[in-house]
Every structure is written in structure tokens, then in C-alpha cells.
Amino acid sequence: MNLKGKVVIITGASSGIGAETAKLFSSHGALVTAVGRDEVRLTQVADICEALHGNRPLCVRVDLTEDGGCEEVVKKTVETYKKIDVLVNCAGKTIVSSLFENSMETFDDLVSLNLRVPYKLCQLCVPYLKLTKGNVVNVFGNKGVHRPGFLLSAILTSALQSFTVSGARDLSCEGIRMNAVRPGVTRTHYLANFNVDEDLMDLTYNEIAKAQPQVINEPEDVAKMILFLAGYEHPNLTGNNLCLDGGATSC
């Protein structure tokens, strides 16, 4: 798939799916803006992209939930590359919570990063995506099974699914596509949010796979699906929520 010269913003690019997506897009000739909060890991991803493919991403270290964070990403991208072709909303996180909590802090934190940031970035990118007939790829979890402690994740997953479908309809009049990749359990830093020791990560993922049952995704597999949706070979492919979970669930 040839994306040579296409300008792609990828959030959450300092690790996991976002990092592998930045590497894959760079290998296909894209000019990448890699967005993340961890400067060291972001630089490591950029070094790999440059060493393997000759394209060094524009690194933007920023907290997207802070005022002006999303604006900074778009401004620096346009200043550097003069256009935007693709937005990949990959940043997100999960925290165990429930209705028994008395604080709204976790709710506000997750809604801000997982829902408000993708919405805001889309708003900011639309004027540029109109010019390039570009597209948006949202990345968030599959439907899964509702379990105690993951109420907010279920709410946000449903909201992002609706955002993708309804957003695609809104944007279609300008020739902009919007789709979503919905991976099942993926071998990323996800388990670090639950204080799982690094040495026990693989064992934990294997046990999760037995319990589902399903195959654990590798970040590279998800990146390939993102690349497929972001490509220009299928101009009528929009408004889709594509699950990548070995058939464990259905969207």
C-alpha cells in the first residue's frame, strides 16, 4: 500500500499499537506526526522509523487532555508538512472503576482522553482533511463482555462506536471517511494499568486467552488493519467498526 507523501497524525504513538502504527506507516512512505506523553519512548520510536525507513516522524510530546494540547499537534503538523491526510486516534486507557465510587475524577479522566480528545482532534483536522479528501481511523476496544469494574469502558466503547458511525455520515459530504478498528485483547502496556509486573505480562496474557477464549493480538496485527482502513484503495469504505478479536465477540 503506497502512502508516500501522505501526512498522518498518530496519537498514542509512544508505545503499543500507536508505536507499531507509526513504524508501519513510515515503512509505506507516510510522513508521520507521532504524538505521545513519554518523550523517551517517543524518541525511540522515531529512531526506529528513521533507521529502518529513512523517514523520521515529527515527535510532539504533549498531554492531549490539557488545554491547547490538540491544537498544538495540528499546528505543528501543518507548519511542518503543510497538510493533513490521515488522523489515527489511538491514544486511550482503561481504569477499573464503579458506581460505588464517590468521586467523578476517574470518569472525567477517561472521558477526556478516550472521547473528548478524538472528537476535538477531528474537529481541528476537518478543514485540512477536506482539502486532501482524507480520513480518520479511531482505535478502541471491542464490545467484549460487561464485567464489574469496567462500566466506564463499556460506556465509552458504545460512545466511540456511535461517534464513528454518525461522524462518517457527517463527514461524507466533504469526501472524508471515518472508520474504526476494534481490537480484542492486545499485547501492549494495557496490563500496566492494573499493576501487573513486567515479568508476569506474558503469563497473564496467556491466561486471558484461555479464559476468553481468543488469540491475543500483537500490536503489529492491529497496525496492519489501521493501515488498510487509512489507505485510499477503497473510497467507499466508511462508517465501519471492524473487530479484530478472533471471533470472540461480534460488533
UniProtKB/TrEMBL annotation:
| Membrane-spanning residues | none
Q: Name one Pfam family in it.
A: adh_short_C2
Q: Which InterPro entries match?
A: NAD(P)-bd_dom_sf, SDR_fam
PANTHER family in UniProt: EG:BACR7A4.14 PROTEIN-RELATED, ZGC:101858
Q: What is this protein called?
A: 3-oxoacyl-[acyl-carrier-protein] reductase FabG
What organism is listed for this UniProt entry?
Papilio xuthus
